[in-house]
Design goal:
The chain is an alpha+beta fold and 929 residues long. It is 48% helix and 21% strand. The strands form five sheets. Strands 13, 14, 15, 16, 17, 18 and 19 form a seven-stranded antiparallel sheet that branches. Strands 20, 21, 22, 23, 24, 25 and 26 form a seven-stranded mixed sheet that branches. Strands 1, 2, 3, 4, 5 and 6 form a six-stranded antiparallel sheet that branches. A hairpin with an 8-residue loop joins strand 4 and strand 5 (174-183). Residues 791-802 have low confidence and may be disordered.
Length: 929
């Protein structure tokens, strides 16, 4: 193609060039103008459609807001009349003011607005400091002065407000409307509120249609409204559900609009009164209150019509311009090419060696001047040609001599380059090898001066090569005996003396310039030349600090694990002893009754034994950790009894500040007692001369407004704090206080607070400490609240005498079987015993064969050397699916105890047994059917 173009005449090139330039210029200009105008039209159309959509959106929102406001206003005023009625009864002497307020509140709570709306009342007597909810269906009595819209509403007293709100238990806030009215006699602000989404029925669709249908864009564009399910709300031509409607190209355009909710879309659409589908632009927006999508549309062919006319005009102009350019270019190119052809002919003669050729000068234009200079050029060329011929002969001889010398120099140059390349490659391989070695490598000369170190050595000695280059090795590396901490000789000097490879017999300590100590191993060896002479020493050092640390940690962990196994064994055996002890005391207390003088003594002995039970739980937690078995627990009694027991006999007393309406906590009472024990013991050790521990507990509602930086879920919590009067904890130690094995006491093991942290985290709670030196420490705990009835209660368990049955108890410990049998007999049951799962299965089969089956079986979770309850229940449920099964264990850390229903058990009972707990459990399980 290039060859063909180059062979064309200049006249043809000029004509083609002018034509191409014209076409490109016109095309680019047309393209730019077309797209600028097109973009302008599209922008104007989109702007108009956007404005229309926004206008309809605002109109619908205004209609909805007005309807909601009027509706809530009427409800609020109606309920104000109810309050006025009870106030009149109070003023008339028929009711006390307290009763009048109570009855008025109850009456208001009966009112419902929509599906979930309700009436609530603020008491603004002490606003803005305090604004309690005197009437509310969920959180009545709570002070809500911390909420922004409450402060605004309390100040306004009358009028309409919109806000976002989530009731307790709801995860997400929703938009809500309320209308306020004021009852000054009691300083009550009465509010009627409901979620905005529930007021859709108040909005008149016909009114909206009357405003939307008349809107047109272009000749046939219009606005319409649909919901996110594709149902047509307002449309000038169609109705029904169009969610799966397809355009002319098969695109689900309504489905896409419902999915995106806001934006613009182009599709091909044919209305019922049209014959063909046309391309259409739709701009749409979302109205979340009604779940509506407001859309405005216009057809492409209507707003692009002026653009198409413009394009036709431009095409006609281009054709006319092309004809004119071709004509003019032919005339102009002819006047240029004729003189050029003549000049080419003269150059052709000159190229053949005829330097006598000359041009005829016929004009004074550019070609006349070119002809003049051509003639001068040819004259000079003729002169130089003659001189050059004579000089060539002279230089030919010199060139031959230079060529021979050049060949010799090139050969030497190639050899030098090859030698340098080999040397560079060898050096590069050496540096790559040194950089790749993980150990530190230093080389010295025969005097012990450093001449090279690799990257690993720089990291170990914490110095760069340029800072230690030429320094003596003793100035760069200081080595000390790892046991005696005394300086030792660098192995480099021994290599210089002996010429042999030297390896340190023991690991050493390297001290850096900053004073940092690192455990290392080191080896030194001589560097020899080709004839065996020592020209330097290489020292290889390896940083083994982390390896030593891991070895020490593994050694300590091994000892702790051994101690943990030992503690777990003691706890298990001690728990079986406690089972017999507590069980007998509990049974004796039941037999003699409260009227006996020894009853209280037995009760005290039982309580003391139960604290010993908590000790076994701590040993079990230390040995294996434990998963909490959480129930609803009254924190008041748990805090007081546990703290007073731990501090009995000491010079320290507790001061309690516990809320009267404190919620129950959703915790494992045994494990939480361990937390109390460890924190109180920590405080007791911090106050050797005595003092006061202030324990407070309050309800705590955690949400995003309370600054949740505790990584907890929003919800209800119990906040407990323990503040002592000890010497405090330095700031540098606060971050480590809950770390395992970290302690500031000479006789501590660093496990107490670590256990606290582990237990609270397993309860989905939060624990932290605040302290300043000299001002004591304050441990703060948050645990989830529970609104079920607490398990800490002084109420006596009343057993129904008609609950009878036949019970099988399985345990490998004779003392446990003995006391459990006594309790069950006392409760009125027939009892049989088994030592393991195999024996229990055999007894169940025999009883079923005699048509005298067991109603319930209590099984120990694990039996050493035999089948425990965890394995036996699978077989028992196959042969006796109706039998009630209870799992028993002294360990709470087994997942079966925490999730007993998942393993097929109907209930759990922990060792040691108490008479009342066993009776209550059996009554609950048997009476439940």
């Amino acid at each position: 193609m290039n060859k063909y173009i180059n062979n064309l005449k200049i006249r043809t090139k000029l004509q083609i060039g002018f034509t191409i330039i014209l076409i490109i210029a016109v095309t680019v200009g047309t393209f730019i103008i077309f797209h600028l105008i097109k973009r302008s039209i599209e922008t104007n159309i989109e702007h108009e459609l956007n404005n229309s959509t926004s206008g309809i959106l605002n109109m619908v929102e205004t209609v909805a807001r007005t309807s909601i406001k009027v509706h809530l206003s009427a409800i609020a005023e109606q309920n104000k009349k109810i309050v006025q009625h009870y106030y009149d009864l109070f003023k008339g002497g028929k009711l006390s003011e307290a009763k009048a307020k109570e009855y008025a509140g109850k009456e208001l709570l009966k009112k419902k607005i929509g599906k979930t709306g309700y009436i609530f009342v603020w008491d603004i007597k002490n606003a803005p400091q305090s604004i309690p909810l005197v009437v509310h269906p969920l959180i009545q009595g709570r002070d809500v002065s911390y909420v922004d819209f409450v402060q605004i509403g309390a100040k306004k007293k009358y009028g309409y407000l919109e806000y976002e709100w989530a009731n307790p238990g709801e995860k997400r806030k929703r938009k809500k409307s309320m209308y306020l009215t004021y009852f000054p006699q009691w300083d009550w602000v009465i509010a009627a509120s409901s979620y905005k989404k529930e007021f859709l029925d108040l909005v008149s669709i016909e009114d909206i249609k009357a405003n939307v249908i008349p809107l047109h864009f272009g000749k046939s564009g219009y606005s319409f409204i649909i919901d996110t399910k594709g149902n047509v709300i307002v449309h000038p031509k169609v109705s029904g559900n169009y969610y799966y409607a397809k355009d002319a190209d098969g695109k689900y355009f309504i489905k896409e609009i419902c999915k995106n909710k806001k934006g613009k879309i182009v599709y091909r659409w044919k209305d019922p009164d049209e014959k063909i589908a046309r391309k259409k632009l739709v701009v749409y927006n979302y109205l979340p209150q009604f779940d509506w999508i407001i859309a405005s549309s216009s057809y492409h062919d209507e707003f692009y019509k002026p653009l198409n006319q413009l394009l036709s005009i431009i095409v006609v102009i281009c054709i006319i311009a092309l004809i004119l350019v071709l004509s003019l270019s032919f005339v102009i190119s002819s006047s240029i090419t004729k003189p050029i052809d003549s000049l080419i002919e003269r150059f052709s003669q000159g190229s053949k060696g005829d330097f006598t050729v000359r041009m005829n000068i016929n004009s004074n234009d550019e070609f006349g001047k070119l002809s003049k200079y051509f003639n001068i050029f040819m004259e000079q060329l003729e002169k130089y040609s003659n001189e050059l011929n004579s000089e060539i002969m002279e230089r030919k001889e010199t060139a031959e001599e230079l060529t021979a010398a050049n060949r010799e120099l090139c050969s030497m140059h190639d050899q030098l380059i090859k030698s340098n390349e080999n040397l560079s490659a060898e050096k590069e391989r050496l540096m790559i090898t040194l950089r790749s070695i993980g150990d530190g490598v230093l080389t010295t000369d025969k005097k012990g001066n450093v001449i090279l170190i690799n990257n690993a050595a720089e990291r170990i000695i914490e110095e760069e090569q340029e800072n230690v280059f030429s320094n003596n090795i003793d100035e760069v590396i200081s080595l000390f005996d790892i046991n005696k901490k005394e300086p030792i000789e660098n192995p480099v000097w021994r290599v210089i003396k002996t010429g042999e490879v030297i390896e340190l017999e023991h690991d050493a300590i390297l001290v850096t310039e900053s004073g940092k100590q690192k455990d290392i191993s080191a080896t030194a060896a001589p560097i020899r030349d080709s004839i065996g002479n020592t020209i330097g020493i290489v020292l290889v050092i390896r940083d083994i600090t982390e390896r030593k640390k891991i070895e020490r940690e593994l050694h300590r962990t091994s000892k702790i694990e051994s101690l943990g196994v030992f503690a777990g064994g003691i706890a298990h055996d001690f728990n079986n002893i406690l089972t017999a002890l507590i069980g007998n005391i509990s049974l004796a207390r039941e037999i003699i009754g409260p009227e006996n003088s020894s009853y209280e003594l037995l009760k005290d002995a039982e309580n003391a034994s139960l604290h010993a039970k908590n000790l076994t739980q701590q040993l079990l937690t230390f040995s294996k950790g434990s998963k909490p078995i959480r129930r609803s627990v009254s924190m008041v009694k748990l805090l007081r009894e546990s703290s007073d027991f731990i501090l009995s006999g000491s010079g320290i007393r507790c001061e309690y500040n516990i809320s009267d309406d404190l919620w129950n906590a959703h915790i494992d009472a045994g494990q939480f007692t361990q937390v109390i024990y460890n924190i109180i013991i920590n405080a007791r050790q911090a106050m050797p001369r005595g003092g006061i521990i202030r324990i407070s507990a309050e309800n705590y509602y955690l949400n995003e407004n309370t600054g949740n930086n505790m990584q907890l879920n929003e919800g209800m919590y119990i906040k407990v704090s323990f503040r002592d009067q000890g010497k405090g904890i330095p700031q540098s130690q606060l971050k480590k206080i809950f770390d395992p094995y970290y302690t500031t006491k000479n006789d501590g093991n660093g496990l107490g607070l670590s256990i606290c942290y582990s237990i609270i985290k397993k309860h989905n709670g939060y624990i932290t400490v605040e302290s300043e030196p000299g001002k004591g420490a304050n441990f703060i705990i948050l645990v989830p609240a529970s609104f079920e009835k607490g398990s800490f209660t002084d109420k006596k368990i009343f057993m129904k005498s008609d609950i009878k049955g036949k019970i099988l108890i399985m345990d490998d410990d004779d003392s446990v079987l003995k006391i459990a049998s006594k309790m069950l007999l006392r409760l009125g049951f027939n009892v049989d015993c088994a030592k393991n799962g195999e024996e229990a299965i055999m007894l169940i089969k025999e009883a079923m064969g005699k048509n005298d089956p067991f109603t319930t079986i209590i099984m120990d979770l694990t039996v050493p050397g035999g089948m425990g309850g965890k394995e036996a229940i699978k077989y028992i449920k196959e042969i006796a699916p109706d039998i009630k099964t209870i799992v028993s264990s002294g360990y709470s850390n087994d997942p079966v105890m925490a999730n007993y229903l998942d393993y097929g058990f109907n209930g759990i009972i922990a060792k040691p047994y108490r008479f009342e707990e066993m009776g209550k459990l059996l009554y609950k399980i048997i009476s439940s059917g």
